[in-house]
Amino acid sequence: MLKGKTVVLGVTGSVAAYKMANVASMLVKRGCEVHVIMTENATNFINPIAFESLTNTKCLVETFDRDFQFHVAHVSLTDKADVMLIAPASANIIGKIAGGIADDMLSTTVMACKKPVIIAPAMNTKMYENPILQDNLDKLRRFGYEIIEPATGHLACGTSGAGKMPSEEVLVAHIERQIAMEKDLKGKKVLVTAGPTVEAIDPVRFISNHSSGKMGYAIAKAAMLRGADVTLVTGKTSLKPPMFVDTISVTSASDMYEAVVERKDEQDIIIKAAAVADYTPVSVSNEKVKKKDGDMSIPLKRTKDILAVLGAGRKEGQFLCGFSMETQNMLENSRAKLQKKHIDMIVANNLKEDGAGFKTDTNVVTFITENEEQQLPKMTKDEVADELLNFILSKL
Questions:
Q1: CA dihedral over 81, 85, 91, 97, signed as positive or negative
Q2: Which residues contact 135 (CB under 8 A, 6 or more apart)?
Q3: Do 205 and 267 belong to one domain?
Q4: For residue 227, what is the domain's CATH number?
Q5: In this structure, are 72 and 193 located in the same domain?
Q6: Domain termination residue (choose one: 121, 149, 179)
Q7: Can you give the pTM of this predicted structure?
Q8: Do residues 364 and 222 share a domain?
């Protein structure tokens, strides 16, 4: 997603500066061109050669470095950049930026940058809580800078509290959100359901399915990266929810139904990718459960049909998409569901097809609307998610 993008990393004097070597490496592996600017104090914590080895670009420290290949370096870098991240950001650099001071290579480059700038403060808790520092951060927010809230934990000074630099994964995730995708869903509210539901038979046993949630999570993340305000309603999975997504965890089909219906009128797009159990056990006493040849016969009732309810009560302009997993007559069965539930499209796949179905990292799907069928080749679920959102946008 970041291939061909250019990222400028600003590193200031903090023990956490060493983490930025991992950030630079992660970005390079994702296909980014990475340039690093260090303050003089930062070089006391990590050598510029480390960044040069990882990025294959010159690490800048001095404002008037005569060996730099571009003219007016602080301007040329900002022209190339898609985003700039300053991490760890010391109280000193935050104060400089807030005050419009440009007296070294990093502060001068920030002053010239018209691209998104992300700032990750990292410092002692007392410094972070200082009202002057907080006022400076508020000022930067007003001017459009993105501030990453620091983590809370054990600090290098030996105390514990707020001021710890977030993990490398969190820093890269903020960069991805800024530049990975065009923001063609900005202003849209998107609700995605994902994962399995679990229907309890008794305190030990339950009815469920093999859904991993991978497809729904991929859709939620893709929609977030494209600027949407995303709500993910998810059954229990082993997956880590995407960052910057409002995640609501549910257990049963009834829980999922309530979570979706409660929010349905707020949404512009609803995509039901969850594999909801079709049946739930009827609550009966053990004495009333029939037994035959030593096996228990559990009375069941159908769970509420989320898509049918959405289709019957949609708001004007809302787009509804469901998923259909079949083992035979995929197109016929999926089209029947489309018509019966009064929704806009069905994403159909065949559980028996190689590379499709539960728990795989790939999928083979067909988009079905009232007047159209579009079959996709085998793709990763991330790729399917992007194609699905492209298809939906073409219909809005």
A1: positive
A2: none
A3: yes
A4: 3.40.50.10300
A5: no
A6: 179
A7: 0.89
A8: yes
As a whole number of angstroms, the distance between CA 231 and CA 217 comes to: 11
Distances (CA, A) of 78 to 6, 35, 215: 10, 10, 37
User: Do 210 and 287 belong together in one domain?
Assistant: yes
Quick check: is 157 catalytic? Answer: yes
Q: What is the DSSP letter of 148?
A: P
Q: Give the separation between CA 45 and CA 94, rounded to whole angstroms.
A: 19
**Rounded Cα distance, 217 and 252, in Å:** 18
- Widest pairwise Cα distance in the chain: 89
* Enclosing domain of residue 74: 6-179
Question: Which of 77, 58, 172 is closest to 115 using CA atoms?
Answer: 77
* 143 plus 218 within the same structural domain: no
Cα gap 368→188, rounded to integer Å: 23
Q: Do 88 and 120 meet the contact criterion of CB atoms below 8 Å apart? A: yes
Which residues, other chains included, contact 143 with Cβ-Cβ below 8 Å and sequence gap of 6+? none
291, 260: one domain: yes
The pLDDT tens digits for 277-332 are: 777 887 655 555 555 555 566 788 888 899 999 999 999 999 999 999 887 889 99
184 assigned to some structural domain: no
Q: Which of 32, 59, 113, 157 is catalytic?
A: 157
Q: What is the pLDDT of residues 45-85, one digit of tens each?
A: 999 999 999 999 999 987 655 555 555 455 778 888 999 99
Tally of CA atoms within 13 A in the half-sphere of 191 that contains its CB: 23
Within a domain: 126: yes
Helix H segments across 2-151?
19-29, 48-55, 73-80, 91-99, 105-112, 125-129, 131-142
Asked whether residue 384 is domain-assigned, the answer is: yes
Number of domains into which the chain is organized: 2
